[in-house]
Amino acid sequence: MKNVLILCTGNSCRSIMAEALINAKLKGCVKAYSSGVNPSGKVNPNAKKLLQKKGIWEDEYRSKPIEEIEEIPFDLVITVCDNAKETCPVFSRNAKTIHIGFEDPDGKEIAAFEETLNDIEKRLLPVIEKELCN
Fold first, then answer.
1. Thinking of the domain 2-102, which architecture would CATH place it in?
2. What is the pTM assigned to this prediction?
3. Is 99 exposed, middle or buried (0-12, 13-18, 19+ CB in 10 A)?
4. What ranges do the domains of the chain cover?
5. Does 93 have pLDDT greater than 70?
C-alpha cells in the first residue's frame, strides 16, 4: 500500500476532503493523509457535513501539523493550494511532490464545497491512480 500526503495551508477543508475521497475511492491501493503548513486546528463544518452526507467521513480526520505525520514514508506529496506549494517541506524519502490547486470553498455555501469535492474527484484521483496504483 502506498502513502500519499495532501498538503494545504489550514488543513480544514480541501486537504481533508481530498483525504476522505482518496481513502474511500482508492481503498486497497493508497492510504491518504492530510496536513497543513499552518493548520487551523479545526475541520470546516461544511466540509465535515458534506463528507458525512457522502458517507465518507471518518472521526480520525482532523486538522494537524506536518510534525505529527512526518515519520510516515510518503510515496507522493500533493499540495492543493499555492501557499502550501511555496512552503512545502522536503520529506526524507524524497517523495515526489506535485501541485494541483483547488478553489478554497471556506466561507462559502455548501454548494461551493460540493464543487470543490467534485473537482478533486475529477482532477486529483486520476493523477494518484496513475502515479501510485498502476
1. 3-Layer(aba) Sandwich (3.40)
2. 0.92
3. middle
4. 2-102
5. no
